[in-house]
Structure formats: structure tokens, C-alpha cells
């Protein structure tokens, strides 16, 4: 009963000014859907571990596999997902492909997420 009281107003009273203000700033459905998809990518522990490694250094698949105790194939699969989400980028140096975070936004997301979970 107490939970229901928190979720509902005691009586019907829509604050039209606030509703209008918020509605005018809400992103469109496509943007909201793409944002939800982005955060789903962060919902996998292996991908978070890969992002943390890339937070520290640019590395190749062999390095990632060694650091994470995974096969190169498994790492490559996760990197593909991260690249599709535009969270990591790659560059070729001879026969080796090196991976890094795509940009400072990704670094900031990781940093802020870490700060958030350590808040008291």
C-alpha cells in the first residue's frame, strides 16, 4: 500500500505548465531508442572490461585476449559490437590492428559511471 502511495498522486491534478515544459524538451522516439541501445551495450561485463583496458591504453586483440583471459575470437566478437556502437575505433599499423576508445565522450561515460557507483 505504501509503495502505491509513492507512485500516484492523491488526486488527479495535472500541472499543465510542467508537462508542457518537459514535453517541449523531450528527444524524439528515434533518439530515445538509440540511447537505450547504446546503454544496452554497456550492460555486458566483458565489454565493460574491454572499455576499461582501452581507457588506459591502445591495444591489439592479442593484448586484450591476454589481459582478459579470453580467446582472440571472443574478444573480436565483443569489439565488433563496441565498434558498431561507435564506442571504440581501430587503426592499422602494418598487419596489426590497434583499438582505442572512440572519443572523449566514451572516456567521460566510463569515468562518470565509475564515480556514480562509488558515491556514498
Quick gist of this model?
This protein is mainly alpha-helical and 120 residues long. It has a domain at 45-120: Arc Repressor Mutant, subunit A, CATH 1.10.10.
Number of E strands: 3
The assembly state of the depicted protein chains is single chain
What is the CATH class name of the domain at 45-120? Mainly Alpha
**What gross morphology would you assign?**
elongated
What does this molecule look like?
The protein is mainly α and 120 residues long. It has a domain at 45-120: Arc Repressor Mutant, subunit A (Orthogonal Bundle). 63% of the residues lie in helices and 12% in strands. It is built from seven helices and three strands, in the order H-H-H-H-E-H-H-E-E-H. It has helices spanning 2-7, 16-25, 29-41, 45-56, 61-68, 72-84, 104-117; strands at 59-60, 88-93, 96-101. A three-stranded antiparallel sheet has the order 1-3-2. Helix 5 crosses helix 6 (72-84). The chain is elongated. The two termini are 29 Å apart. The mean pLDDT is 91.
Characteristic key phrases:
120 residues; mainly alpha; Arc Repressor Mutant, subunit A; 7 helices
Write the topology of this structure.
Blueprint: H1 2-7, H2 16-25, H3 29-41, H4 45-56, E1 59-60, H5 61-68, H6 72-84, E2 88-93, E3 96-101, H7 104-117
Antiparallel strand pairs: 1-3, 2-3
Helix pairs in contact: 5-6
Amino acid at each position: 500500500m505504501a509503495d502505491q502511495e509513492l507512485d500516484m498522486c492523491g488526486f488527479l491534478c495535472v500541472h499543465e505548465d510542467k508537462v508542457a515544459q518537459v514535453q517541449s524538451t523531450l528527444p524524439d522516439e528515434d533518439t530515445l531508442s538509440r540511447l537505450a541501445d547504446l546503454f544496452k551495450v554497456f550492460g555486458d561485463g566483458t565489454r565493460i572490461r574491454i572499455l576499461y583496458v582501452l581507457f588506459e591504453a591502445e591495444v591489439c586483440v592479442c593484448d586484450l585476449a591476454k589481459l582478459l583471459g579470453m580467446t582472440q575470437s571472443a574478444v573480436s566478437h565483443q569489439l565488433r559490437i563496441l565498434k558498431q556502437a561507435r564506442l571504440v575505433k581501430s587503426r592499422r599499423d602494418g598487419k596489426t590492428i590497434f583499438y582505442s576508445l572512440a572519443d572523449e565522450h566514451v572516456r567521460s561515460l566510463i569515468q562518470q559511471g565509475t564515480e556514480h557507483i562509488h558515491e556514498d
